[in-house]
Amino acid sequence: DIPYTETQIPEIYLSEILFNGSPSLKKVKENTGAPMMKLIRLYIRSVGKFSELVGEGAMYLLLAMMGILLYSIITNAMHRPVIWVMEMSQFTMAAYYILGGASSLKHGIHVRMDFVYERWKPRTKAIVDVFTVFFLLFYLYIMVKGGWDSSAFALEFDQRNHSVWKPPMAPIKIIMTAGMALMFLQAVAELLKDFCRAIGRKY
What we know:
The chain contains seven helices and no strands. It is an all-alpha fold.
């Protein structure tokens, strides 16, 4: 191999690197921006693992909701209905799909309508996604900001639902805001993935 350093390449080897396809050129490219690429990979993997962990935990909320509805059936059959079942099942369902959103985003399984996109090459998709993902980030930012303000209001004034049970609204609002914040972080990770694909880097 041609000797090189991370900061400079001897001029005597410049023509060989440019025209002979030396393996050293590949090493130079890999070393270019190495600290930044390490940070990008660390962010992508860390957020991805956390999204997976939260998503796997959220799956069990579906079983919890089924248990709540089953309990409702039993109590109704015994002529002893409870007033909290309907709202609790709604809260559980909301937490289920919001907390699983980041994991779904990571695996690309959100519902979408693709007419032209699926025909493109992976690199072309990545280049387009680098720009279009900003619409998603803007939307998620607005949702997180609104969720934060709404959660703070619910905590400060002890906001409760207008029903017979009157449950506090702060817990479910905090959960939903946290889920949307995690989706925002995962969307940033997807942006970094697309950027790496666009420039031909591994992540």
